[in-house]
Amino acid sequence: MHQPDPRMEECIKQCWECRDACQDELYNHCLEMGGEHVEPRHVKLMADCIQICQAAADFMRRNSPLHAAVCSACAQVCEACAQSCEEVGGEQMQRCAEVCRRCAQSCRDMGKMKKAA
User: Fold this and answer.
1) N or C, where is the chain less crowded by C-beta within 10 Å?
2) What is the pLDDT of residues 39-76, one digit of tens each?
3) Model's pTM, two decimal places?
4) DSSP 8-state assignment for residue 36
5) How far apart are CA 41 and CA 48, in angstroms?
6) How far is 4 from 112, CA to CA, in rounded Å?
7) Element (H, E) at 89
8) Residues 6+ apart with CB under 8 A from 26
9) Whose CA is closest to 43, among 55, 56, 29, 57?
């Protein structure tokens, strides 16, 4: 039976936290605020972040040999989303950016891991 790597478990947790934070902010804050919060570039980045975080968590959960590639992509998307959130501004968007950056770092680390044979 596969024994989960604690670093992978932590990354899965970070991905789910980021997914949830972006989803909450997008649907319960950005759409209500309007203006810069609903600019197409920002909304698309948040939607991309939601989806890639879920995909990365799923790849890791099933111990896919491709999880490192997906995690590397996730790190890139999370970093872009964090930057967009900071540009939009405000306390809630700053908190979302912080969650995205934590996930990006965790996924960068996971992307560097070699799959054990």
Assistant:
1) N
2) 999 999 999 999 999 999 999 999 999 999 999 999 99
3) 0.91
4) G
5) 10
6) 17
7) none
8) 43, 46, 47, 50
9) 29
Alpha-carbon distance 101 to 17, whole Å? 11
CB 74 within 8 A of CB 108: no
C-alpha distances in angstroms, 47 versus 4, 5, 8, 43, 89? Answer: 28, 28, 23, 6, 18
CB-neighbour burial class of residue 93 (10 A; exposed 0-12, middle 13-18, buried 19+): buried
pLDDT tens, residue by residue, 75-91: 999 999 999 999 999 99
pLDDT class for 116, splitting at 50, 70, 90?
A: very low
pLDDT of residue 113: 77
Q: Give the whole-angstrom CA distance, residue 76 versus residue 62.
A: 22
Under DSSP, is residue 2 helix (H, G, I), strand (E, B) or coil?
Answer: coil
In this structure, the chain runs to a length of 117
